């Protein structure tokens, strides 16, 4: 109960420091440190004897990565990592340190939880494992005298590896792009590695070898991540006082698919109707204003809203409206038709408004 209460208190204290999560866009770097729990590893000898179960203690782990985010939750990264564990027991001893590189693909769940951005991922790569001062005692087996084996040298052997990742990040207020991270990783090496040892039986030593058969790791890391070029959230302007529309003012709404600035068939019909009706009134100007929902970064949404407005303006010109009569503006996610939180894909907010004045 004390631990749970402490966690709740820590979470409440951290909330004022947390910002709303934004999808990672472009280059980022990250790093973390923590602990590695290695499952019991079988050391199979070259002589006739059952494998020795090599149990280990909790050990340190670190990882660093550089990656690229697509702005839609998907990202890919190159990771370098290091893990260290000590074998311990009455009949075993030694140390194992692992290091290598992994290529990871991850997905961030933007807007799923306030202030927190969960993520999952998977990776493949290559890991090297160095066995140092390896020691194991084997019992007699099927007429074999067993004996004790020790490393003849510190050897490093490699294996292809894979991992699964689940974690969460918390963006930091005041530093756009900076976030605290915490994740769990299951990493396995899927190939046997063979190491030279010296076998001693009743005072007589001979050369032998052992194969390390399975290597499964449970790693918990806490760290930081920085997304370069992440813009500060754009403050939402207070709603402007409503001005009564002129009796001849007309407006039309054109809606867009998610993350698109291309016109649908229905959108072209609405633009054509607006162009046709503009010839029936004496207008002073035609405003074309673009908007987005909140599912992207403010910087990306601003550009997307302008592209949408430009697409509608081009269609108006195609339908006979003079280009010099049209003014184009993009408002990004700052004027929502339907109020939502960050990271929400709301169809009615993905729009362009044509106003004939």
CATH fold-level assignment of the largest domain? Porin
The major beta sheet can be summarized as: 8 strands, antiparallel, barrel
- What's the CATH C level of the largest domain? Mainly Beta
Chain oligomer state? single chain
Please count the helical segments. Answer: 3
Content-based structural category: mainly beta
Element-by-element helix/strand order = HEEEEEEEEEEEEEEHEHEE
Q: Give unreliable regions as ranges.
A: 6-16, 243-247
SSE blueprint:
Blueprint: H1 2-14, E1 25-38, E2 41-45, E3 52-54, E4 59-70, E5 74-88, E6 92-108, E7 117-138, E8 147-151, E9 155-171, E10 178-189, E11 193-201, E12 204-212, E13 215-227, E14 250-255, H2 265-278, E15 286-290, H3 298-318, E16 326-330, E17 351-356
Parallel strand pairs: 15-16
Antiparallel strand pairs: 1-4, 1-13, 2-3, 2-12, 4-5, 5-6, 6-7, 7-8, 7-9, 8-11, 9-10, 10-13, 11-12, 14-17, 15-17
Helix pairs in contact: 2-3
Describe the structure in your own words.
It is a single chain. The protein is mostly beta strands. 13% of the residues lie in helices and 49% in strands. The chain has helices spanning 2-14, 265-278, 298-318, and strands at residues 25-38, 41-45, 52-54, 59-70, 74-88, 92-108, 117-138, 147-151, 155-171, 178-189, 193-201, 204-212, 215-227, 250-255, 286-290, 326-330, 351-356. A hairpin with a 6-residue loop joins β2 and β3. The longest helix has 21 residues, at 298-318. The model is unreliable at 6-16 and 243-247 (pLDDT under 50).
Q: What can be said about this structure in brief?
A:
The chain has 357 residues and is mostly beta strands. Helix content is 13%, strand content 49%.
């Amino acid at each position: 109960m004390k631990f749970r209460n402490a966690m709740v208190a820590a979470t409440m204290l951290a909330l004022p420091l947390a910002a709303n999560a934004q999808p990672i866009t472009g280059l980022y770097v990250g790093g973390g440190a923590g602990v590695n729990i290695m499952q019991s590893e079988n050391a199979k000898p070259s002589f006739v004897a059952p494998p020795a179960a090599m149990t280990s203690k909790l050990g340190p782990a670190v990882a660093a990565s550089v990656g690229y985010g697509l702005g839609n939750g998907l990202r890919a990264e190159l990771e370098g990592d290091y893990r260290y564990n000590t074998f311990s027991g009455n009949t075993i001893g030694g140390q194992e340190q692992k290091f290598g590189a992994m290529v990871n693909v991850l997905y961030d769940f933007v807007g799923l939880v306030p202030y927190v951005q969960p993520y999952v991922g998977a990776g493949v790569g290559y890991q090297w494992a160095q066995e140092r001062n390896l020691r194991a005692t084997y019992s007699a087996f099927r007429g074999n005298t067993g004996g004790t084996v020790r490393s003849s040298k510190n050897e490093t052997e490699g294996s292809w590896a894979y991992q699964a990742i689940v974690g969460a990040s918390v963006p930091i207020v005041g530093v756009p792009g900076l976030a605290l991270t915490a994740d769990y990783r299951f990493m396995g090496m899927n190939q046997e590695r063979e190491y030279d040892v010296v076998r001693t039986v009743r005072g007589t030593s001979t050369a032998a070898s052992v194969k390390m058969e399975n290597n499964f790791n449970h790693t918990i890391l806490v760290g930081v991540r920085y997304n370069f070029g992440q813009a500060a959230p754009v403050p939402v302007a207070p709603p402007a006082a409503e001005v009564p529309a002129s009796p001849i003012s007309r407006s039309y709404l054109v809606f867009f698919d998610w993350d698109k600035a291309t016109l649908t068939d229905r959108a072209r019909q609405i633009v054509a109707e607006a162009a046709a009706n503009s010839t029936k009134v004496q207008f002073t100007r035609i405003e074309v204003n673009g908007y987005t929902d909140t599912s992207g970064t403010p910087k990306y949404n601003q550009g997307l809203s302008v592209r949408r407005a430009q697409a509608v303006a081009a269609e108006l010109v195609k339908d006979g409206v003079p280009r010099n009569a049209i003014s184009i503006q993009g408002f990004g996610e700052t004027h929502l038709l339907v109020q939502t939180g960050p990271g929400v894909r709301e169809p009615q907010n993905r729009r362009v408004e044509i106003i004939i004045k």
